Write a sequence for this structure.
């Protein structure tokens, strides 16, 4: 019995240039609802560039030009009249290095809800508690919410950043190599967290670590030199890739 997949985002013929250098070449793939999609490939192949297209983070880069569509909620996010603020509220981002604000743990989580108009302290307390619980961090920090987030360990800071991303109730969470700066124990906690988050959210993760992609993702996209070489179920990509380039990368022949 094949499961019916619902597409949360659809990438259609997406190309991107940084000035004259083309970084993405005609990429088309779905992002399935409440699944983890991993984007893998050697350094400089366009993984992070593709991820940043999904919430238009490339907009802040000078001389960046995008062609093609990303359909989300029935609309193309690349049109001139697309509401980028609303897009980034629905499509949250967790970066490679933990980047907590130099504020208290409480303020890190309450910051975005406050900007979006929630002023009631009790309501904000509830959001902070829920997000920290969802990020498996509440038990470790609940008695020091008024202390600086900068005092947390690297792994705790990254889970705090995930909690912060959850605070505005996104539908999609983008993760750009979220474990690359972490030790194996902290990495395992983030991976466990991803598998739980995907019950409620759609997750797209860029990773250099193929074992990690195999462990946490449902679908995998393999990229090479700005092109999407292969997309499919993770098990199929790792055990029976259709493309020779994919097989060479998976088996460690290059990359």
């Amino acid at each position: 019995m094949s499961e019916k997949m619902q597409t949360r985002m659809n990438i259609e013929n997406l190309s991107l240039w940084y000035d004259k250098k083309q970084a993405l070449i005609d990429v088309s793939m779905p992002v399935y609802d409440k699944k983890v999609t991993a984007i893998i490939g050697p350094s400089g192949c366009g993984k992070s560039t593709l991820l940043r297209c999904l919430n238009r983070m490339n907009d802040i880069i000078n001389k960046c030009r995008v062609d093609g569509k990303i359909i989300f909620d029935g609309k193309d996010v690349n049109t001139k009249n697309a509401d980028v603020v609303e897009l980034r509220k629905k499509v949250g981002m967790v970066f490679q290095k933990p980047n907590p604000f130099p504020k208290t743990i409480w303020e890190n989580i309450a910051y975005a809800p406050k900007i979006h108009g929630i002023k009631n302290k009790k309501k904000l307390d509830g959001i902070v508690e829920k997000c920290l619980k969802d990020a498996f961090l509440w038990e470790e920090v609940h008695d020091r919410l008024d202390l600086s987030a900068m005092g947390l360990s690297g792994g705790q800071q990254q889970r705090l950043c995930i909690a912060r991303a959850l605070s505005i109730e996104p539908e999609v969470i983008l993760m750009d190599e979220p474990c690359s700066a972490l030790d194996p124990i902290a990495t395992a906690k983030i991976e466990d967290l991803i598998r739980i988050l995907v019950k409620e959210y759609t997750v797209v993760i860029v990773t250099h670590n193929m074992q990690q992609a195999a462990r946490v993702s449902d679908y995998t996209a393999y990229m090479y030199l700005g092109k999407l070489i292969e997309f499919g179920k993770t098990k199929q990509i790792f055990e029976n890739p259709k493309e020779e380039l994919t097989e060479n990368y998976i088996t460690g022949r290059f990359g």
About this structure: The domain at 7-97+172-250 is CATH 3.40.50.300 (Rossmann fold). Strands lie at 7-18, 21-32, 36-40, 64-72, 75-76, 91-94, 172-176, 202-206, 219-224, 227-233. The mean pLDDT is 95.
